Amino acid sequence: MGKYVGIDLGTTFSAIAYIDEKGNPVIIPNKQGENITPSTVLFGGKKPVVGSVAKRKSITDPKNYEAFVKRHMGEKTYSFTTKDGETFHPEEVSALILSKLKADAEDFLGESVDGAVITVPAYFGDPQRQATRDSAQMAGLKVLDIINEPTAAAIAFGISRNVGKTQKVMIYDFGGGTFDVSILEIDGESIRVIATNGDHKLGGYDIDMAIVEHVKKLAKEEGLDVDSDIKAYQNLMIQAETAKKELSSDETTEISLYIKGEDFSVELDRETFEDLIETILDTTVSVMQRTLDEAGLEYGDIDKILLVGGSTRIPVIQTMLEEETEIKPSSEVHPDEAVAIGAAYHAVDVVKQMAEGTFHTGNEAAGGKTDKENVNAEDVPDLDRNYTFRDITSHGIGIVIYDDVQEKQVNSVIMEKNTEIPAEIVQDGYSTTQDYQEGIQLQVTQGENTNLDYVTIIGSADLKVRPRDHKVPIRIIVSCDRDAIIHVRAVDMDENVDLGEVTINREKHNMTEEEVREAANRINKLNIGE
After folding, report:
1. Which residues are catalytic?
2. Cα–Cα distance between 231 and 360 in angstroms, integer?
3. What span, in angstroms and rounded, lies between the C-alpha atoms of 465 and 473?
4. From CA 339, how far away is CA 119, in angstroms rounded?
């Protein structure tokens, strides 16, 4: 007997929810009684500390403190090093956060967590999504599904508001570390994502940093260097976040620091604050407009703008949106809790489908069904309203080819951005580059530009081809499952030989399977949930 949950693994805060026996969503509080848990970890003790306690203690031990790790998911070259020289990959730090969420939920529920739907920013690419799955594995969590944060918020909105007539909804998701704009069509029983755009390195953190840089500049004018005092800098980071929140309701706030033995304080008013973040807000408007253009829509076609993410509490953001779109933005869902709640609703639906063997993964050539899985569907409540949904790819997917005209390698997009998933695209017209060629290196790309300087190589694989006295025609098949994780196959069209599914080499961006297993053992020994 166990529960199935939805998890919003956020950059600054994370949340976990489940659906009770009456079909009502419940945010599960952590052991500190908080509905949201800071996505922060403090190392250096007998075991890592996660959440608000870590954040509070970070001022006295900043070198052992890691925050905003979500921004580095899928970056193999990034790691956090403690004062003692111990290193942790982003996936491992996220696994520690997930371990606390899981342990707190099991303590609250009195039952095990048997599976979770985990959300990610819509603009996360293949490496970041794979890294999220790896983190869950390290934390001992069974991933039922990975869905986009705006889609989860739309599910929460649709069910809680009992949406009847068809509406086009723009979700403005401005979180602590990521920003997404998604346009969805919602009716009484389905959600269709039309277009999405975003930046997984734009969020409330950047607003905090605007305050930090402003205060550092003022301090420097007084002959004080904040950067030279690591404890003062960490204190400033935390006070900047607090100031941001206070200025959402108050006209002024004060930041006080102790820098190299000297007191320093500065008053920050709302007008100055709004000037500091004007460029950031302009960037979000540009993303909104680009999303509309890709959807072939105008603001007049949008029925509702739904605010998601803690940063949307800032008054100037709401004012800016209304002035830009002539639509009053809606706060009908809780900005911090909607994503976890939507994921929890989806977890109920997934478990029922898994029990029936009707859950579509998309792994078997886009749209295949899983076999019946051993899940406990009996205790999962029946919902008055369920939503089916289809997400889309947030990036184009293609391969590297040699262009004879340009005489150089270019990106050939096979699956266009905003393609509904699960999906499979079959593309002919490729071939080996010379006679008697014995193999090809298949490099898979993520991005829309033909110029390789503006796309990401997300993986590669070497394929053997039987040599012939001519160029061998090759068919490429790209499929994208419902987690937006990519699968690639190649076919030798000369002999109609299926070269099989290519196992994309993600070692450039992600940990290997062996590294994930070793990290899981390491995380388990840290006993973070005890």
Report:
1. 8, 70, 149, 173
2. 50
3. 11
4. 7
